[in-house]
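ARCHIVE CARD
CATEGORY: sequence design from structure
SOURCE FIELD: tokenized fold
FIELD CONTENT:
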């Protein structure tokens, strides 16, 4: 029986071109046995007639907050309490902004505020609207809220002719996101009980007792992955360089300082791991000599000789029984080339490329990722191996959202 059977879902439809796809989404939900109450904003009614939703749901569509007949029957508070899930698809930039601020100026936003049900938002808008600082801030703020998840948007061609992030996810994807909110019990996720080893943050290579070489990694991406993986029932060990973050609850934290220490800590744990995710920005080099006393400012120039640090990810990927290896490639340029080379040269399964620059990649809360993978499929007959190559862009989103999308891809490719 479908997990959505008899589930009570409010389908909120806002005023965007993608509203026509909501009819298909409604049909899929009904097919799964869900009871769906459609709530349209006034703008949504400019895009699609309520009669379509009424016919598909066999329920009168609600749109007015001040509807006397509805208030006499199932009023807005009753409706808010009735719902097991509120799904907003498409969610416009406008409605997203209102929900972020806690506004309640129409039936849909009032229901969001008055309901304890989980809220699933499927943003859909022009790519420039999605990339606008105001929308970015709103999405970032929403993605931190408990009980609220955001699905999409997808990247691609848009109704206005633009190409970029902002397309509403397809109804099938949204259907499975709905199913997931009801199967959130960790036992049912593909990563349940998987042992995941994650590295995060920078490493510090000491020069003398007061100075060191390091980098701008904040550790936020690795910590977000650790948190999401733990919530999905994985047994997570996080090996972290020095960062200003608290360990997510339920995660085993091992703190280290230098690349060598991180290497040693990884090799203590890695034989137990099913998946190794290397997000740490490990220093490539360290000073050959560590000065015992503070180096004095005597000479006009100072040469510090460096030697190569061990390559943790590459060493793990060389193990005979290597775990699934997911590497990160933070680059300022030539992203795809470097990432593909790293994938092949280091024998990784997935490489996650992300651009770093003045306000991108390091230290910030949002990011965009480009995944490249090389899945090895084994055919039962004859045990023939097939290499499946692929790639996917994950558009700008909070690191927590990206962590969840990345783990979904890992699960889909390797653990389904
Ligand atoms: C033709 C047309 C298409 C639009 N498409 C979108 C869209 O896809 N996403 C969006 O956020 N706003 C879109 N808008 C703007 C919204 O309709 C507008 O912001 C409206 O106030 C949203 O109201 P609501 O959030 O209450 O539904 C569009 C407007 C027009 C005229």
């Amino acid at each position: 029986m479908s997990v959505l059977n008899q589930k009570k879902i409010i389908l909120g439809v806002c005023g965007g071109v993608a509203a026509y796809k909501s009819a298909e989404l409604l049909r899929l939900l009904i097919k799964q046995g869900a009871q769906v109450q459609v709530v349209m904003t006034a703008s949504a009614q400019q895009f699609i007639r309520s009669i379509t939703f009424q016919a598909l749901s066999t329920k009168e569509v609600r749109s007015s907050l001040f509807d006397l007949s509805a208030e006499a029957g199932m009023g807005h508070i009753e409706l808010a309490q009735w719902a097991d899930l509120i799904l907003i698809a498409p969610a416009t930039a406008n409605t997203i902004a209102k929900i972020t601020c806690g506004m309640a100026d129409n039936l849909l936003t009032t229901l969001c505020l008055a309901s304890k049900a989980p809220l699933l938002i499927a943003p859909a808008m022009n790519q420039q609207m999605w990339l606008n600082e105001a929308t970015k801030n709103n999405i970032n703020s929403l993605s931190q809220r408990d009980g609220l998840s955001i699905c999409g948007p997808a990247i691609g061609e848009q109704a206005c002719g633009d190409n970029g992030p902002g397309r509403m996810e397809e109804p099938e994807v949204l259907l499975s996101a709905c199913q997931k909110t009801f199967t959130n019990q960790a036992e049912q996720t593909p990563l349940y009980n998987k042992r995941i080893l994650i590295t995060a943050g920078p490493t510090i290579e000491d020069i003398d007792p007061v100075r060191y070489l390091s980098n701008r990694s904040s550790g936020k991406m690795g910590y977000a992955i650790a948190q999401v993986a733990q919530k999905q029932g994985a047994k997570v060990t996080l090996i972290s360089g020095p960062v200003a973050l608290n360990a997510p609850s339920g995660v085993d934290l091992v703190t280290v300082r230098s690349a060598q220490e991180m290497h040693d800590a990884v090799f203590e744990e890695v034989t137990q791991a099913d998946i190794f995710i290397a997000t740490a920005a490990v220093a490539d080099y360290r000073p050959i000599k560590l000065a015992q006393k503070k180096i004095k400012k005597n000479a006009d120039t100072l040469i510090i000789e460096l030697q190569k640090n061990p390559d943790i990810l590459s060493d793990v990927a060389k193990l005979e029984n290597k775990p699934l290896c997911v590497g990160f490639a933070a680059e300022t340029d030539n992203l795809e080339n470097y990432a593909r080379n790293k994938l092949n040269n280091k024998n990784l399964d997935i490489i996650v490329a992300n651009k770093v620059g003045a306000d991108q990649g390091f230290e910030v809360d949002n990011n965009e990722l480009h995944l490249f993978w090389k899945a090895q499929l084994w055919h039962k007959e004859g045990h023939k191996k097939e290499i499946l190559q692929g790639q996917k862009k994950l558009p700008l989103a909070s690191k927590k959202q990206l962590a969840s999308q990345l783990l979904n891809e890992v699960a889909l490719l390797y653990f389904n």
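CARD ANNOTATION: The chain has a mean pLDDT of 91. The chain has two domains: 8-184, 187-414.
SHELF: design records, drawer C
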